[in-house]
Design brief:
The protein has 33 helices and no strands. By secondary structure, it is mainly alpha-helical. Its main location: nucleus.
């Protein structure tokens, strides 16, 4: 019997019976058929085609192409479904029952108050009429594009409406699936309400490819609204990228639609179809005039935001004023009535047409601001052309400062009497619903003056008797004319800050202060100038920012943020931080700067007498040296001058680096040796014991190196320049953070302080204590010079990127480079509602 063989084939009977077929490969009957005596048949299998490693090229290309087409079709279908779903969800959100007609009226009023000047293109009478018709007929007349504008309005205004904030808090806390993923919020966050609508608007605009492939006036408006909102929210670690991109996309879309060429001579308007065709063919003159005015205002909104966001380092403008071939916006009453008027053009000053408006003047000032911010961010006075022998002073007609200042003066002289700043004029414009444009006009004018005139005021004028121009290079000849110029320039600085304070007082009486980023930046500038004047009162010769006329403080030591003009600005910033995240950054920065000014004055007096003994070193003002503190100013220039973070850390330009290196060589501090430092400390100790009479007042922070009121002022720039007594400045920081009880205790305990006598110095314990004090002082001195070595090279390209905080929402300084060594200013934003919106849209 032959052994069974396993074969890959089976006979018909075994295959049918599903039993194992043991055969010799089909050559003979299988064992099973043999045993049963049945006939054995084998079905010949079909031939197997030979295997190929790769199919023919044509076949492979056809097969792969077909697969790709299926994938592309599937992705396209998904994109269309998502876009349709987002559009439907946006419609559902706008149909919420709490968005009543009265609610929309209030929302539009908030929009007009806070964002009317920057985004002036909404014709509120038409929008109110359409919404009213919708509520009366229960039928929506708004298309997909119009919904984008409504969502933009809600994005900007929801945070300012308490009822909307409550409604939106309830919605966010009850989103499907939210109970497991997000805790219930017990404290209402106004910013969360606007964030909710911002996420919906971003969804409704569609994916990037869809959003960038459809151009319309409504989409330009929506992008501008979304960009303006993002600008005020200061997203951490983004460098203001979101606002920068939204505004940039809006500008490009507006240019594509030809919104900047509507009034060009001989322009073929058929090329720039913006409104719906049935509106253009209706022939209604008033409606056509209204559509043209809306186009102009949208383009000028692009222009305003372009100038505001292009303030920081490496930021350039997109729109050139000479390219705008459209007339300036008309007055608000003419806009509401849809009247066609002639207003003049931006680049043709002196030609104002038959109708003039505050908004048109504001746009002209924005153009000037663009040049001033560029001058400041690129280095300010340090960029003025110089040669080896002659440095251009600011009063020279060839200086950039002089030219910009003259432009501002010309702007002021051209203002009609009803547009100038006064309380009566404010109420006149308020009566015609144009107070916001009036406020922004004068806020921005004051900011322009501050940004110009702060260039020639020393940052740390601790040795100055009053305004005397820059103390660091480039400096100029001192004579009667220059002295009067410096005094006048400093007064312009403080007077402009006081103008902002006066505007705040007027607006807050009726709670009508616009909560815009421009107003926020103006208030921050006024607050800082006030803080500067508080610490260096000799610079504010006319006391514009030192106190209100009707203010009295018996103790004389009230905190800087608790009274006076600076206190009002600080309080206003704190209120604005409820709605604008950028305001929180300014509040933190002011508090840090207050501590910084106190600290640097303490350091100055602490090391002043020690440094008197070393004539080999060139000293910073922090060490008791001469100069106006330019090296200290460079550490703060980005944050102090910034409208709202550039992306990452900016490196200095080559020209700035060369200048910085030269300054570092000439102002390098030579560290004293340990032996020299010990000798200096011992001499300072004995000097302190000799100069302090028994029972004299000594500050609680007094150290052996602290000079008394009678100490001479070393290192004067000229022997004839005598500064105010040191005790005057000591009082400023001595009482700054102490309570009246602490001050009383200081005065009670001060006379009991012991001074070394010849007999006590012979005591071994006394000698050991003095040695310990010298070691401690040496350690402090070492730390001071280490900090100095770290701070000296931190130049940031000499006054470049100084408007980063305003334009990007982040400080130019990294946390490690901040002089006060604290955390970043940017407040953390809450979690985005986007994930919850996605969940809700699926239901």
């Amino acid at each position: 019997m032959r052994p069974p063989m396993r074969s890959s084939i089976a006979c018909t009977r075994c295959r049918k019976s599903k039993i194992k077929c043991e055969n010799d490969g089909g050559k003979h009957a299988c064992d099973s058929c043999i045993k049963t005596g049945k006939e054995c048949f084998y079905k010949i299998p079909d031939p197997v085609p030979p295997k190929r490693s790769e199919p023919p090229a044509a076949v492979k290309q056809e097969r792969d192409g077909g697969s790709d087409r299926k994938k592309l079709k599937k992705i396209d279908d998904i994109s269309k479904v998502d876009n349709q779903r987002a559009t439907a969800y946006a419609e559902e959100v706008l149909a919420a029952p709490f968005l009543t007609e009265d609610m929309w009226e209030q929302v539009f009023d908030l929009y007009k108050l806070h964002f009317g000047p920057e985004l002036s293109f909404l014709h509120l009478p038409t929008m109110k009429e359409k919404l009213g018709r919708k509520f009366r007929t229960s039928e929506s007349e708004n298309g997909t594009e119009s919904n984008l504008v409504l969502l933009g309005v809600l994005t900007l205004t929801a945070r300012f409406h308490p009822e909307l904030v409550k409604y939106l808090a309830h919605i966010c806390n009850n989103q499907p699936g939210n109970a497991r993923t997000r805790p219930i919020q017990t404290q209402l966050d106004p910013a969360a309400a606007s964030e909710y609508y911002a996420d919906i608007l971003a969804m409704a605009l569609g994916p990037v490819r869809t959003a960038m492939g459809i151009a319309s006036v409504e989409r330009v408006a929506a992008l501008l609204m979304l960009g303006l909102y993002e600008w005020s929210q200061t997203r951490p670690k983004t460098g203001g990228l979101t606002a920068w991109m939204y505004i940039g996309a809006a500008i490009r879309m507006a240019q594509f639609l030809g919104l900047g060429f509507g009034d060009a001579p001989g322009v073929d308007e058929s090329r720039y179809q913006i409104a719906n065709q049935h509106q253009r063919s209706s022939g209604h003159q008033s409606q056509m005039a209204l559509q043209k005015e809306i186009k102009r205002r949208i383009m000028f909104s692009c222009f305003i935001l372009d100038r505001m966001l292009a303030c920081g380092r490496h930021r350039v403008t997109i729109i050139h004023a000479d390219d705008l071939q459209i007339q300036l916006p008309c007055s608000e009453d003419k806009f509401d009535l849809a009247m066609e008027v002639q207003t003049g053009f931006l680049t043709k000053p002196g030609r104002f047409g038959t109708d003039d408006s505050v908004l048109g003047r504001f746009i002209r000032l924005v153009d000037i601001w663009g040049d001033i911010s560029k001058f400041s961010s690129r280095g300010g006075r340090l960029t003025e052309d110089t040669d080896n022998e002659y440095r251009i002073p600011p009063w020279d007609q060839g200086s950039r400062f002089y030219q910009l200042d003259k432009r501002l003066q010309a702007f002021d002289s051209d203002l009609p009497g009803t547009f100038t700043f006064s309380r009566s004029n404010y109420f006149k414009h308020e009566n015609h619903q144009a107070s916001s444009a009036y406020v922004l006009l004068h806020m921005l004018r004051c900011v322009c003056l501050i940004m110009l005139h702060r260039e020639y005021v020393p940052f740390i004028p601790i040795r100055c008797k009053g305004p005397e121009g820059p103390l660091d290079e480039p400096t100029f000849e001192r004579d009667e004319f220059s002295n009067s110029f410096w005094r006048a320039s400093a007064e312009q600085l403080f007077k402009a800050a006081r103008g902002i304070v006066d505007l705040i007082k007027i607006c807050q009486r009726k709670d009508k202060l616009p909560q815009s980023t421009i107003v926020l930046f103006a208030i921050w500038n006024a607050a800082f100038v006030g803080l500067y004047g508080f610490h260096f009162p000799q610079m504010d010769t006319e006391r514009h920012m030192l106190s209100f006329d009707d203010e009295t403080h018996p103790d004389g030591h009230t905190g800087v943020f608790e009274h006076g003009p600076t206190g009002l600005t600080f309080e206003t910033l704190q209120k604005m931080s409820n709605w604008l995240k950028m305001a929180s950054a300014y509040v933190d920065l002011l508090e840090h700067m207050d501590k910084y000014f106190v600290g640097i004055k303490q350091d100055y007096y602490k090391y002043k007498e020690l440094n008197m003994l070393s004539e080999k070193r060139s000293l910073r003002v922090r060490e008791g040296g001469t100069g106006g503190g330019l090296e200290e100013y460079h550490r703060f220039a980005p944050a102090l001058k910034g409208f709202g973070p550039p992306i990452g850390h900016s490196q200095p330009d080559e020209t700035d680096h060369a200048d910085s290196s030269e300054r570092s060589r000439t102002g390098e501090v030579e560290r004293p040796s340990s032996r020299d430092a010990e000798t200096m400390n011992a001499a300072a100790l004995s000097s302190a014991s000799r100069s302090a009479p028994p029972g004299s007042f000594t500050a609680i922070n007094h150290s052996q190196g602290m000079p008394t009121a009678d100490s001479p002022r070393p290192f004067s720039r000229a022997a004839s320049i005598a500064g105010p007594p040191a005790e005057t400045y000591a009082d400023s920081w001595r009482y700054h953070s102490s309570t009246p009880q602490q001050q009383q205790q200081q005065q009670q305990h001060s006379p009991s302080q012991a001074y070394p006598t010849p007999s006590s110095m012979l005591d071994p314990a006394t000698i050991a204590a003095q040695a310990h004090d010298r070691t401690t002082m040496q350690d402090e001195s070492d730390k001071f010079y280490l900090d100095l070595k770290k701070a000296e090279p931190s130049r940031f390209g000499i006054m470049t990127g100084d408007l980063g905080l305003f334009s990007t929402g982040e400080s130019q300084l990294s946390v490690s480079e901040m002089p006060f060594g604290d955390a970043a200013y940017m407040p953390a934003m809450g979690d985005s509602a986007y994930q919850y919106l996605q969940q809700a849209s699926e239901y």
